[in-house]
Amino acid sequence: MTKAEMVKSVARSTGLSGRAAAEAVDATIREITRALKKEKRVSVAGLGTFSVRVRKTRRGRNPRTGEELTIKAGKTVGFRAAPGLKKGL
Questions:
Q1: 11: domain range?
Q2: Does residue 14 contact residue 8 with C-beta atoms inside 8 Å?
Q3: Can you give the pTM of this predicted structure?
Q4: Which of 47, 50, 43 minimizes the C-alpha distance to 88?
Q5: Where would a tag sit more exposed on the chain, N or C end, judged by fewer CB atoms within 10 A?
Q6: pLDDT tens figures, 4-19
Q7: How far apart are the C-alpha atoms of 35 and 56, rounded to whole Å?
Q8: Comparing C-alpha atoms, which of 11, 33, 12, 38 is closest to residue 24?
Q9: What CATH number corresponds to the domain at position 49?
């Protein structure tokens, strides 16, 4: 599902206009992002938990040239699905 499809689905299921549904989806994404930056973890009941994960410096390889290189340490977002979400699949 794309973001546009999600906006249409939210609009249809809530009776909101397309613009209001888009604002609601954008606000949700913005708040999850803000909370991850501040608190490092966001739990949404029935959906799952988003968390900040730290990746260590590691060795990599340039796929074009085969040259080895060092990939810097960094942060990424992880997601663990709630049991109810997994069960629904």
A1: 1-34
A2: no
A3: 0.77
A4: 47
A5: C
A6: 999 999 999 999 999 9
A7: 23
A8: 11
A9: 4.10.520.10
